[in-house]
Amino acid sequence: MAEIPKIEFNHSEGEQLPHFHSISGIEYKRIYSREDWDKQLPDAGEYPFTRGIHKDMYRGRLWTRRQQSGFGSPEESNELLKFLLKVGQTGINIDSDIAGKLGLDPDYPLAQADVGLQGTSMCTNEDMAVLFRDIPLDRISSTLIFPPPSSVVMMGQYFLTAKAQGIPLEDLIGTMMNCPFTQLVGPTFQANTAFFPIDLALKIGLDLIEYLIPVTPKWNVLNVNSRNIRESGVDAIQEAAFSLALGADYVDRLCKRGLPVDSFARRIGFFSAVHLDLFEEVAKFRAMRRIWARLLKERFGAQDDKSMWFRCAVQTSSLTLTAQEPMNNIVRAAIQTLTAILSGVQSVHTTSYDEAYCLPTEATQKLAIRTQQIIAYETGVTKIADPLGGAYLVETMTDELEERIWEMMKDIEKRGGFIECFKAGWVENELNKARYKLAEQMESAELPIVGMNFFKDDGAAAEIDIFKQAPDMQARRIEYTINYKKNRDQKPVSRALKNLCDRVKNHADKDLVAPMLEAVEARATLQEVCDAMREATDFSIPR
Fold first, then answer.
1. Which of 401, 428, 444 is the last residue of a domain?
2. Which tens digits make up the pLDDT trace of 141-167?
3. Residues 6+ apart with CB under 8 A from 253
4. Which pLDDT tens digit goes with each residue over 272-287?
5. How do residues 74-86 score in pLDDT, each as one tens digit?
6. Nearest C-alpha neighbor of 208 from the set 257, 160, 165
7. What is the 3-state secondary structure (H, E, C) of 239-302?
8. Does 526 map to a domain?
9. Are 120 and 71 in contact (CB under 8 A)?
10. What single DSSP character describes residue 295?
11. Does the N-terminal or the C-terminal CB of the chain have fewer CB atoms within 10 Å?
């Protein structure tokens, strides 16, 4: 790697930047003019939606403030959700612990050390009911962050909770993430293949989409998670190309099942990252809207404009947070939140400044929500649809990013599409190369990070309040799970699990959602449902 020039501290000349290119390597010109971009833009709300999917954007309705939430037990997470709603959160993102994503119960030996640490520990119908106690499911939009097959189990438990609240399924509003490739930290091959057969997980996810379309008309059936991809260390071009290619794979598979594209495309969303290179990030989202619209219209024949909408929730980057001088993260998150709004996204999670250390505290989450509220109500940027539209730099960079994203998507398509690239290990290889490249950029200071590799203060110690779990939380969750299994009526559970195992073993090409939901209603736990399908495929998991 070429030697990166260091910042010069010259009192007469001032400081100098180390380079003039974006994070993705696009060189910034000194100045942009009409010679760089002299085209015409369609209005916001008009195809291909470069300027936003709604004509009035935030003049008509602000974005959803949706902090990703959950820790410890469902009881503790319920209290947190009520606190966040009280201080101004307008939607719910429920994240589970790692065990829940992998289809494991808290009492499973491999899961016990991680119970409730990275999100809410959930495995039973009771857990879901407690998590959403006193929260109306037809008035508060919820995103449930679970991959298949866990997504089906959690959807079944959510249905039972809605029924107990007296809410018809057709009135439920929210999203099930439902993607087996990108739910952990990046689409890491081992994490997504070692605990459940990947082809079966994909099939179950598609089954769930097909099941949900007629019964939950307000529910979004898939959320493609490009944020986790980006947080692995890839750049904006790779993030966009990978996620759009994966989204296209899903649309293609659903169309091949005989579903009309306009019956489901409007219910697919994306969950993306927003980083600190402000203009590149704004251009990224504009390019992604344009590419998705053209894909749906020109490749898949969508007729409804809403089918072509790139509907996007974002979370500000965790990768850019530093443990050194953590208060600096408040500034980073605020800039990224502003970038997201200037980009025209539909939902925002502002990452709390202490997340370089731990799960956020209530105080830091409140500050994150206040950051969004200040931008919404005090800055004036929400009074204009697409405030950066027409800027020579932004439009030039949008065109440049669109071209580079298309090029990478074509390469992925030649390799068989994102899903085949993932299964072949190509995606994992690209992620690893990106991780090494990012580490080199940070170590060499090619990527300046204030307080870490620039303007370091080695003598300063961080003084922040660290989030702490209740010391007996894990023991209580494990004991609860054991007692739950011991005290229920075992006969309907055993019967439902046997039926599910037989269906997967002998008729895996048929719908698998219905027998999974029957097992959930019989009070089978998350892992028991998953284990029945593992048994049917002779798939063993680590202990």
1. 444
2. 999 999 999 999 999 999 999 999 999
3. 206
4. 999 999 999 999 999 9
5. 999 999 999 999 9
6. 257
7. HHHHHHHHHHHHHHHHHHCCCCHHHCHHHEEEEEEECCCHHHHHHHHHHHHHHHHHHHHHHCCC
8. yes
9. yes
10. I
11. C
